[in-house]
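Re: that chain you flagged

S.,

Sorry for the slow reply, it's been a week of failed gels. I finally had a moment to sit down with the sequence you sent. For the record, here it is as I used it:
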Amino acid sequence: ASSLGRYSSGLQLMIVALKNSSHALWVLSFFLGIGVVLFSSAIYYVEKLGCPDRTALALNMLSDGTNRTQLDHYTQECRLRPSKSNEYGICCTEFDAPVDFPTIIEA
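Prediction finished late last night. Pasting the structure tokens below so you have them in one place:
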């Protein structure tokens, strides 16, 4: 216990320094949190832009003589090769989340 006594003045100085800078640390933490939320939101929407419009695909028929829509073809392509992008874009779920990168909605 006597060996800790010689460090007590330095420890007290560190505690005083942390108390004096606590307001600045809270402001810094707040802005860091805002930055994390904004960055993750931007990534979410950029990721969502890579997914095709499922409504438009469901309305367009294929020109191969069958009674299938482009959505049927897109779904079949994604089932066969889920991690590859196809002519419609990347493979996404009905929630516009990429298939090979699950989101909170799918968890």
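What I noticed first: Helices lie at 2-5, 8-20, 22-49, 54-59, 70-80.

Talk soon,
D.
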